[in-house]
Amino acid sequence: MRELIVTGLSAKYGLAVALTDVSLAVRTGETVGLLGRNGAGKTTLLKSIINNPELSASGEVTVDGTSLRKVPTYRVARRGVAWVPDNRRIFTALSVEENLHIARSRRAAPDQLERVLASVPLVEKLLKRRGFELSGGEQQAVTIARALMSAPDFLLLDEPTEGLSPLIVEQLQESIARLPALFDLGILVTEQNFRFVTALADRVHILETGSAVWTGTPDELVARPDLINRHLSVGEK
Ligand SMILES: Nc1ncnc2c1ncn2[C@@H]1O[C@H](COP(=O)(O)OP(=O)(O)OP(=O)(O)O)[C@@H](O)[C@H]1O
Predict the structure, then answer these.
(1) Cβ–ligand 1 contact at 87 (below 6 Å)
(2) Is 44's C-beta closer than 6 angstroms to any atom of ligand 1?
(3) Containing structural domain, residue 38
(4) Domain with 214 in it: what CATH number?
(5) How far is the CA of 39 from the centre of ligand 1 (A)?
(6) What is the pLDDT of residue 200?
(7) How many domains does the chain have?
(8) Which residues of the chain have pLDDT under 70?
(9) Is 18 in the pocket of ligand 1 (CB under 6 A)?
(10) How many C-beta atoms lie closer than 10 Å to residue 67's C-beta?
(11) What is the β-pairing status of strands 186-191 and 203-208?
């Protein structure tokens, strides 16, 4: 088992504080959800973990006890932490196959592509299509498949359901649910979609204005409508 541990993480954009003293842990084989309203700091937390240069962060992030704090963003993937940003940045002029090929890392197994295609089934029939020809749901599936090509131990998924129809969200949920066991990886997923996160996660954290205000299991959260009302907007439930 490997462990990604975030301790006392705070972050600022210039002088604007966006995250204050957040701590959490993700182990391989499990999924941890981060819920919160728009602007709660979910994306900032993921960006801080990968040392995104847009912000200045303090606190500690370790993988199996080794700090990531001084690792440049482009090298974090080599430490086994893959970021899937919320805007699905695939290379639109390239085919899906090329997008996957580019992301392959030295960590990848010889049969990584076959394993990835087996785990995100939608992607196999898209291999020859170009990025700009894909729907939002197809792009999201390709973005996740691309991250898996680097054979990560941890996948940071930023609002994967954003802008997707309920049917596509359901398919995405089925694919993501299989990943921790198939690849022995840990997932940290941010969402506004309460149902999606409570269906997938082993533990949930709620962020509010940059601070973690509640942590518990999905069952505990479902039993607390007061928390849901206080910290999540109507559309998020
Ligand atoms: N590049 C940036 N420069 C300055 N402030 C930023 C920047 N990105 C985010 N912020 C601010 O940081 C705070 C946290 O934003 P963040 O994007 O992390 O929230 P979020 O929970 O991911 O919200 P959303 O669901 O809208 O993506 C907000 O107040 C936001 O306005």
Answers:
(1) no
(2) yes
(3) 3-236
(4) 3.40.50.300
(5) 5
(6) 96
(7) 1
(8) 233-237
(9) yes
(10) 10
(11) unpaired
